[in-house]
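Sequence, please.
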C-alpha cells in the first residue's frame, strides 16, 4: 500500500496565511475532481462527449448550429452532478470566509459545489450548469437539483440556453472586472485545480503577482502558471487544503 504523505507547506506560506486579510482564490475543475467530477484536461487527456472534443460541444458555434446537442451535454453533466457532494477542498475554502476578512472566491466551475459547501458570493466566471437563460430577453431560470429544466422562458416564452459561458463567448458582464480588481488588491492568491490555459481566468494570478501578492498553486501537475507562483504544492486539492 502507498504510504500517505502530508503535503509540504512552507513556513513562509503559513506566515502569509496567518497575516493575510485580502485573499483571492481561483479554482478550476480539479477542485471538484475528488467529488467525482471529471476534469476537462489533465493526466494527458482531454474530455470528449459523443466523439466531440469538449471545446467543440461547449462552444458558441455549436449553440448556433445545434442547441439541443448543447443542452444534451449539460443535461448529462447535471445528471452526473446530482449524485455528487462537495469534497474537503470545497469545505476548506468555504471555511476561509471566516478566516480571512476579505476573501474573494472566483471559480471557472459551473457545478455549484462551492455554493453547496457554503461559499457565498462566488464569482462564477463561466456561469452555472444549474441555470438556464433566455436567448432573447436573457431572463435567468434556476434549475433545481431534483427538478426538470424549464422548456421555455417563463417571461417571454422564447428559447432557453444553458447560462454558461461557451468557447468563443463573452464572460458575464462585470464578473471578470470585479475579479481583476480584487486580484490587484490581494496579498495572497491561491490557484487551485486549474490547468491555467483558459483566459481571462488565468490572468488573475498574473495580476495578483504583478501587484505584489504571494501566489500559491495547488495541483498534482505543473501548469503554465507554476513558474510565476511563489509556492507550488504538488497534490490533490482535498488533501492539501485540509492540512493548510
Ligand atoms: P482543466 O480540466 O483544464 O484542468 C484541471 C486541472 O486540475 C489540471 O491542471 C489537473 O492537473 C488538476 N487536477 C486534477 N485533479 C486534481 C485534484 N484532485 N486537485 C487539484 N487539482 C487537480 O480545468 P480548468 O482549468 O477548470 O471552460 O478549465 C478551464 C476551463 O476550460 C473550464 O472552466 C471550461 C473548460 O473549457 C468553459 O467551459 C468555458
Amino acid at each position: 500500500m502507498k504510504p500517505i504523505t502530508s503535503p509540504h507547506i512552507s513556513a513562509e506560506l503559513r506566515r502569509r496565511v496567518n497575516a493575510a486579510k485580502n485573499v483571492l482564490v481561483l479554482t478550476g475543475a480539479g477542485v471538484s475532481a475528488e467529488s467525482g467530477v471529471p476534469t476537462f484536461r489533465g493526466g494527458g487527456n482531454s474530455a470528449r462527449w459523443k466523439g466531440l472534443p469538449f471545446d467543440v460541444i461547449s462552444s458558441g458555434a455549436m449553440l448556433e448550429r445545434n442547441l439541443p446537442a448543447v443542452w444534451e451535454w449539460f443535461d448529462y453533466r447535471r445528471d452526473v452532478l446530482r449524485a455528487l457532494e462537495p469534497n474537503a477542498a470545497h469545505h476548506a475554502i468555504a471555511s476561509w470566509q471566516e478566516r480571512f476578512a476579505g476573501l474573494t472566491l472566483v471559480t471557472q466551475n459551473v457545478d455549484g459545489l462551492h455554493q453547496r459547501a457554503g461559499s457565498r458570493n462566488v464569482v462564477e466566471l463561466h456561469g452555472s450548469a444549474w441555470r438556464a437563460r433566455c436567448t432573447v430577453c436573457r431572463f435567468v431560470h434556476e434549475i433545481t437539483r431534483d427538478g426538470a429544466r424549464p422548456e421555455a422562458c417563463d417571461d417571454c416564452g422564447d428559447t432557453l440556453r444553458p447560462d454558461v459561458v461557451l468557447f468563443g463567448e463573452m464572460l458575464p458582464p462585470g464578473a471578470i472586472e470585479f475579479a481583476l480588481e480584487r486580484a490587484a488588491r490581494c496579498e495572497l492568491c491561491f490557484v487551485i485545480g486549474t490547468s491555467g490555459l483558459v483566459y481571462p481566468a488565468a490572468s488573475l494570478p498574473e495580476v495578483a503577482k504583478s501587484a505584489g501578492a504571494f501566489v500559491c498553486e495547488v495541483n498534482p501537475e505543473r501548469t503554465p502558471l507554476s513558474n510565476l507562483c511563489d509556492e507550488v504544492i504538488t497534490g490533490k486539492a482535498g488533501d492539501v487544503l485540509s492540512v493548510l
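The chain has a mean pLDDT of 94.
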